Predict the structure.
Amino acid sequence: MKRLFLFSVVLFALLSCSGNNKQVEASAPTFELDKLLAVADRNVDSTLTVVGYVTHTCMHSGKKCFIVGESQKVSFQVMANGEIETFSADLVGSKLAITGVLKEYQMSEEYIDEMETEVKELENEEGMAETCAAELSNISEMRQWMKDNGKDYYVMYYMDGQKYDVLN
């Protein structure tokens, strides 16, 4: 469990260090989160607005929030930048329109192999079976995506948020 937690901390630290202070464009195209993910590869490094529901904010720094779309199947990370100093915990459950720069993080096949090895080492520890099964399922989905897309890496999209409006 400690290794999985450490992996999450390292991954989010990497993502948070990739800030972009690019000014927000006045007329950024707007996407519902579920629709954005279908065209994300063509919009990397573009300023746009994404609409979604806040499911979590980082309680320690407030520098990250996670949103979901109407389907609630995919979680999307937004980093606080620009006019956004922090995301308040009070935003959980709110529908936001967040404007910022879409970014991607590529996880190499070697890195995914290391993740899988670490998860398998934890599999037999008491109380870890369910967590490890979920992680192994995620890794399997990553590998299937890589195969389907002819890539030797897995892409995770996130946003350097510049400003947001509460819609509800």
Notes: The helical segments are 2-16, 33-39, 109-122, 129-149.
